[in-house]
Amino acid sequence: MTRIIDGNEIADGIRAELRASVETLRDAGVQPRLATVLMSDDGASETYVSMKQAACDELGIDGRHHEIDPDAPADELFERIDALNADPAVHGILVQLPLPDHVEKRRVLGRIDPTKDVDGFHPENVGRLVAGDARFKPCTPHGVQRILAAEGIETEGKDAVVVGRSDIVGKPMANLLVQYGDGGNATTTVCHSRTDDLKAKTRRADILVAAAGVPEMIDGDMIREGATVIDVGITRVDADTEKGYELVGDVDFESAKEKADAITPVPGGVGPLTIAMLMYNSVKATGIQSDVAVELP
Ligand SMILES: NC(=O)C1=CN([C@@H]2O[C@H](COP(=O)(O)OP(=O)(O)OC[C@H]3O[C@@H](n4cnc5c(N)ncnc54)[C@H](OP(=O)(O)O)[C@@H]3O)[C@@H](O)[C@H]2O)C=CC1
Ligand SMILES: Nc1nc(=O)c2c([nH]1)NC[C@@H]1CN(c3ccc(C(=O)N[C@@H](CCC(=O)O)C(=O)O)cc3)C=[N+]21
Hints:
This is Bifunctional protein FolD. The chain is an alpha/beta fold. It has two domains: 126 residues, Rossmann fold (3-Layer(aba) Sandwich), CATH 3.40.50.10860; 134 residues, NAD(P)-binding Rossmann-like Domain (Rossmann fold, 3-Layer(aba) Sandwich), CATH 3.40.50. The protein is 40% helix and 15% strand. It is globular and about 50 Å long. Bound molecules: NADPH dihydro-nicotinamide-adenine-dinucleotide phosphate and 5,10-Methenyltetrahydrofolate. NADPH dihydro-nicotinamide-adenine-dinucleotide phosphate binds next to α10.
């Protein structure tokens, strides 16, 4: 029987433990605070940011939301980041991506204080991750690692294939899978839009992570019998539903389920873990900055 992995359940468990970590900090007189910054009027981005704020509320983290007009000059965003960096009461800063075209992503990510960089996208944190000394693991790949661990799926010695090489999902995912230690030691292949004969690569995967953002591009025929399939992709597709859209993953769930031993659905798979691991990094950042020893799940 194919196992349908319940991301909400795994995320609930992590959040429950994080609540105790937040208590420890508050008992020590430290109120964890996460600033989210949105410079976009995209509906999906607005939804994600409000979900992050709701997760903060649930855990007792003080979530402060900042909005910047998408037409404003980039300097307005830089000045806001500088102010948040300088505010000792703010422990975590997340600038929601994507940003408007006139704002250079690299300059933004490099401007955030690396000890407050709860996304783990600052070059210092990327470097630490690659060097095997991660401070903040990027939330989505970290969440995928937690799913594999929770499901008892061993990575050591396995063939892992990641479809996608973005800075926020594909590259850090591949990096975690190839690291020494638990959740790593996999033989890892990274595929992208220029990959020749993608199917030949994905069919070798014991663990397949799909993060291309192309709805249902991975079907059962591209999956090895018995594989674990992790679907990171989320695309809003127009549909006759209350919201006017539905969420579609990169994996054709019905045909993939016939081949996979375990598979994540969309929604209810990786997404909830992304939010849980953002909370994890926010608690970790607070501990680092306040010098309070805090246990993390
Ligand atoms: N569940 C969650 O928590 C999250 C979900 N997402 C979702 O994951 C998906 C990926 O996000 P993100 O990494 O930011 O996206 P990007 O668009 O930044 O990257 C997509 C990657 O997929 C590759 N790709 C695109 N088309 C193909 C193809 N036909 N075959 C092989 N590779 C392909 C691209 O290749 P190339 O580099 O050559 O262009 C690129 O490397 C999106 O659907 C996004 O919404 C993202 C973050 C969190
Ligand atoms: N700086 C930055 N950090 C991010 O972590 C970041 C970002 N920018 N930009 C966009 C992507 C996307 N992302 C998701 C978070 C939660 C769900 C999630 O919880 N999804 C639910 C469903 C959500 C819904 O109903 O729309 C699920 O899959 O079950 C999905 C995607 C974080 N991202």
